[in-house]
Amino acid sequence: MKPFKNRLTLAFVFTLVAGSIPAAGASAEGAQAATAPANEKELFAAAEKRENEIVAATQAAIERNRKSDAVIHVVDSTGKSIPQARVTVTQTAHEFLFGCNIYGFDQSGSEANDAAYKQRFADMFNYATVGFYWRWYEPQRGKPNYAYTDKVVAWCAERGIRLKGHPLLWGNEAGIPPWSPGQPAPAIQRQRVSDIMNRYHGKIAFWEVVNEPSHLAEPRIDEPYRWARQIDPAAYLIVNDYMVMADGAPGFHRLLTAAKANGVPFNGIGIQAHEPHTMRFPLDRVQAVLDRYAILGKELHITEFTPTSDGGTITGSHRSGVWDEAAQADYAVKFYRVCFAHPSVRAITWWDLSDQNSWLPGGGMLRKDMTPKPVYEQLHRLIHQEWQTCLSGATDATGRFAFRGFRGAYRVEIEAGGATASQQFQLSRDSAHEIDVVAASK
What we know:
By secondary structure, this protein is of the alpha/beta class.
């Protein structure tokens, strides 16, 4: 951890961590004129103190926003309550979506590394992004690479990993097939959306139909999202864009506001979090961005998060130094805490699991040999220990066992003398507060 070298930059960052998203074109000189501590050490200490306060405050917010109360009521076969029954409650799955793209699936060239990649993926995530980049997915017209996707989808389904398709349409070169001189005609676009969504109906629930629409003139989101809704009324549609954490992406916010007013169907807002590549987004700014987009009344998805460990210079933060494995892990844990604490956030997706195929050098949670970096180990502890509910105890005199747990899927096991029971249930914001479990004799 090192203080900033540049006083103007430090003063500018102090205004960021003080709470507001600066307007486009805001200058460091203007920020320096704001009220701020008098020297660099005080600036650094104030910013560090504020970051620590934000992280500490997430604990109460997570308790409030990610948990629900429940009561296990144990009865015998006649409906009579059983006091002092032994109760074990185990969370088996998260409601929140902890994800990663799965682009490295069977891509390492080594059976051992492929197996390690899959094991690490399944151990960490319950949500995967599947790629449909038109340029590489259908290099020959009429011959999309469904075989590979089918294999990935089947593997995820066996493990209860939910899926998102990304992207069906994109104005970038990666979204233009090589057999087309430019963006294909709307009729061809619509056919592609229809073909893919129908093939994976009931298998892929989440879709980013058009990627990064506020930065590209075509394709627009209006009609493609209406096509998608007609194809699958139950599909969860996300509009995704970048630079959101950098400056609030006012153009994206305007696009979404207009889309909502015009009845364009979408369920979620996708917020990428890796542009600029070396920026360590101040946590005050992260909260301010989430609050601003939450006002639109849609769920928020952190769709692409890639802090790296490649030795690049840390920018945009009260901290300087380089992005190494320690800095990557430290910031990632704090970022996850802030996002998980926010009531409007539905998902966080890391972008590229392994350095072997990461789009940014050092952007993986795993090294090229598939060994875990500190970020993998620390996020695994966070998600699967700190944020997972497993507890036991005994029912009270009324046969009830009350607890507060993280939302998701659960298994409860009961032992009461010679009687036992095992039952699964879902704990959600709107779930029943009391679950009756009948303990039957062995």
